[in-house]
Design goal:
By secondary structure, this protein is an alpha+beta fold. The protein contains five helices and eight strands, in the order ββααββαββββαα. The strands form two sheets. Strands 5-2-1-6-7-8 form a six-stranded mixed beta sheet, with helices on one face. The chain is globular.
Length: 210
């Protein structure tokens, strides 16, 4: 079962971004975004968002190096396990299958218009170099099938702000953000698949906001 999420850019009091299908929990996608910005983009949040959102507005199956779906020679499709890489919905196999192309905005989500039953939203702010992590409010939320920031008048909160991560700081405790969802053994291991692709960020610099 996939953990559906959104990679978003802060816009005024809201956000706008793209759908991300797999492994959207903090110790997965949140951790990967943090390390990717620090290690590949050298802290350039705007450059990361340009790639992740503007150049791939069809959304993502997975933004990290994973198994890629390809067309099989005899028809049908297969998982290419030999060359793991990111896979979006606006290039390659899914784009050809579904008729999606860059610039159409098929994967765009926002605080006012969204689908897919998002469970986590990662809202990045290039100016403050922060990433706000929102979690869906759960089955008690009046709008359980969707995620809204802020909630409609008269309704209970449909999201919880789990953390605001300063992207220049050392890594936060991703697992603590998920503590209510996992058994103690999971939290004790503190293992993440992100380690296969990017090492932990141990050091930090003074963050841009007070």
């Amino acid at each position: 079962m996939s953990t559906r999420s959104c990679i978003a850019r802060k816009e005024g009091d809201g956000w706008r971004g793209v759908y991300h299908h797999s492994d959207g929990y903090p110790s997965g996608l949140g951790c990967y975004i943090f390390r990717l910005i620090r290690q590949k983009y050298q802290g350039d949040v705007a450059a990361f968002l340009k790639w992740a959102i503007d150049e791939h507005d069809g959304g993502w199956s997975h933004i990290y190096p994973g198994y890629v779906v390809r067309n099989a020679k005899g028809g049908g499709s297969f998982f290419d396990k030999k060359r793991p890489q990111p896979q979006c919905y606006c290039h390659g196999y899914f784009a050809k299958r579904d008729g999606i192309s860059p610039g159409k905005g098929d994967g765009i989500q926002s605080n006012e218009n969204h689908t897919f039953g998002l469970e986590w939203v990662y809202v990045l702010d290039p100016d403050s170099k922060t990433m706000a992590i929102f979690e869906h409010g759960g089955q008690g939320c009046p709008d359980y099938a969707r995620i809204r920031i802020p909630s409609p008048p008269g309704q209970g909160p449909c999201t919880k702000l789990k953390a605001v991560v300063h992207l220049d700081d050392p890594e936060p405790d991703w697992w603590e953000m998920e503590a209510e969802h996992f058994v103690p053994e999971h939290l004790e291991r503190r293992q993440t698949w992100v380690d296969r692709y990017l090492p932990p960020v141990r050091e930090g610099v003074a963050h841009a906001t007070k």
